[in-house]
Prior knowledge:
Layout: E1 9-11, H1 14-25, E2 29-36, E3 46-52, E4 57-60, H2 72-76, E5 81-84, H3 87-98, E6 105-107, H4 108-115, H5 122-130, H6 150-157, H7 163-176, H8 180-190, H9 215-235, H10 245-254, H11 259-264, H12 269-288, H13 302-322, H14 326-329, H15 332-341, H16 346-349, H17 354-368
Parallel strand pairs: 1-4, 2-5, 5-6
Antiparallel strand pairs: 2-3, 3-4
Amino acid sequence: MLEKLPPPVWVDTSPALESLVNDLSHQPRIAVDTESNSLHAYREQVCLIQFSTPENDYLVDPFALADLNAFAPIFANPRIEKIFHAAEYDLICLHRDFGFAFASIFDTMQAERILGYEKVGLDSALEKYFNVKVNKRFQKADWGARPLTRDLLEYARFDTHYLIPLRDLLQTELKAKGRWSLAREDFLRACRVNGEADVSAEPWERYASRRDLNLRELTILRELTNVREEIAARLDRPPFKVVTDDKLFAIARAVPKTKKELAHLGLSEKQWGRWGVEILSAVGRGVEAPLVKRKPAQRTEDAVLRRLDALKEWRKKVAAQMGVESDIVLPRPFLFSLAERGAGEMRSILASSPTRLEQYGEQILKVLGG
């Protein structure tokens, strides 16, 4: 059962924003979450920002506020700890939409992973620690819609309401297991956000490595993905809600010439009725266009592959002993840098994680033959 709580504070005016910023600025710890509309819009954006302090839950409407720069000093302040659950996505979205930089975070999901928990969703943590069951039916809600229903607002506030006490419980467990320093290093590295997307790549290039599509089919697919992007942008919806990838692949292979053929390939009456002409035109362009070129695969040196395999085997064994997933022992950036650069670069590669360097340095040198 959910506890009875006063309503969350809805922040959609400049005075309300000023009051919130004043409150957050005087807190040593605050809980944060965001809601975006990736399932409902062509270009995803942050639609709601939740904050919790020990006294209040706040819901900020970014659509109603012209400027959220007042939050920038809070996110960048190392003296104010920002508590997230699964921080990476929230940090990327906040950086992308508002340019925020971050210092001092605590990620409760990463803490659970370092502790070796199998279930690391927030709903599992709330039930385990606080006997609170949250209704999952709002997970795919359209957070860009306005007004938001009372049920949605209540659902949103529970994403941050318990994070501060949850953080304290997890810190106690991390210290008891001797993994607090490891967690702190991972939290620090998580602050280094790169929210910039690769805008140089064309949509079709995501599928260029597929060997079940020949070059002519890939050329047709290029035209199909381009027209899908145009339709999605026009309708402000995600491309997969226009036509799914599997249907685009089927069209590229079959090279249909009529709407009837599109229907036989699985497109609905709405799809071939509204966009059939554009899709068939794209197929025609793909048939006539010069063939696309796949980027040549970069061959990894044999010595790098051997080091990579040896490191993967080693970290798998260590992870099993610790009862955690392999990337907790050695995250992917460290893993691949060590494989590429070798034992001589180990100290510089692991400089941001002195705990790993101290605990595993000799083992890694042995694995790498250094």
